[in-house]
Amino acid sequence: MTPDLSIVVPVYNEAAGLPVFHERLCRNARAEAEARGLRVEVVYVDDGSRDGSANIAAALPPLGLDIQVVALSRNFGKEAALMAGLDHARGDALLFMDGDGQHPPEMIPTFVRLWKDEGYDVAYAVKSNRLDEPLARRSFVRGFYWLLNFGSSSTIPEDAADFRILSPRATAALRRMPERNRFFKGLSSWIGFRQIAVPYQPDARTHGTTSFNFLRLLGLSMEALTSFSPAPLRLAALCGAGLAGLALFYGAWIVLERLIWGIPLPGYPSLVVGIMVMGGAQLLVMGLMGEYVARILSEIKARPVYFVADHVLTAHDAQTAPDAATQAVAPPLKVAGAPS
């Protein structure tokens, strides 16, 4: 029987806290499923973990829910893991959350209520504040979202998390997105429909530290900017126009100084400075164009976003799996935009 709701959980090196998180998740999801008569499954996507997270996830008890474990062949990144969950989820509606314990499963009833009772297609969690983060990080995030939404046709909410629920029609729309360079928050905002923000405060990590260091966040930021916003190119063009205007004004000024006041033309220092400024601006623009061209090349090559090494489905009752309670499944390799 097809589930009504699939809860997709990307996992990367979460072996230490996965059993506790699973019990907490299943307890809250099962209570909501029983109260509303829903059939719910959990889809764990192991993104090439090195600590045996995939094996631990495959051995987790169903606890009243169907459990899928999709183990990728290597670490492809969180965006690829989210897409793998989207491809393998059998439910009509989807709920995405992280497996590190920072997205509280206790919010599942809130998301389901907004979808089932109030008719929202996308309900997404938004950090209520960032006071626990350094000022430099908060400033970087604020500047990133300003740049991302500068001149964009659709606004991507600031501080929105991947923790969100999508209705069946929103899920169907998201599955029609064919691109391989993906930014999940942007895609789920771009599809439109009725959306609402849900303030929340992330829980403390139950173990370990985040794998998203500054360089990885910077890479994800460039992915988002090149996927959803022409702002970098527009700002580079404005910067080039401004420099050209200043150069023209400066050239006219030194000519007037020579003709009117007899001041000799400045020598090589001003020439060197001018060349360095213009050369730096040109290299900046070329670098930005290179980022966009690299994304275009990636789309043209059309390589699969991920490969699946193992896939296990554990049904919560014998009726849904007549041959065995646990079945090993070998699905075809998924390509971005391919039908599930």
TrEMBL record:
Record's keyword annotation contains Disulfide bond: no
Keywords, ordered alphabetically: Glycosyltransferase, Membrane, Transferase, Transmembrane, Transmembrane helix
Key word Transmembrane helix present: yes
Top-rank lineage group of the source organism: Bacteria
Transmembrane segments: 235-256, 268-294
Residues in Glycosyltransferase 2-like domain copies: 6-131
Membrane topology: Multi-pass membrane protein
InterPro entries: Glyco_trans_2-like, Glycosyltransferase_2, Nucleotide-diphossugar_trans
Localisation: Membrane
Descriptive protein name: Glycosyltransferase involved in cell wall biosynthesis
The organism of origin for this protein: Xanthobacter agilis
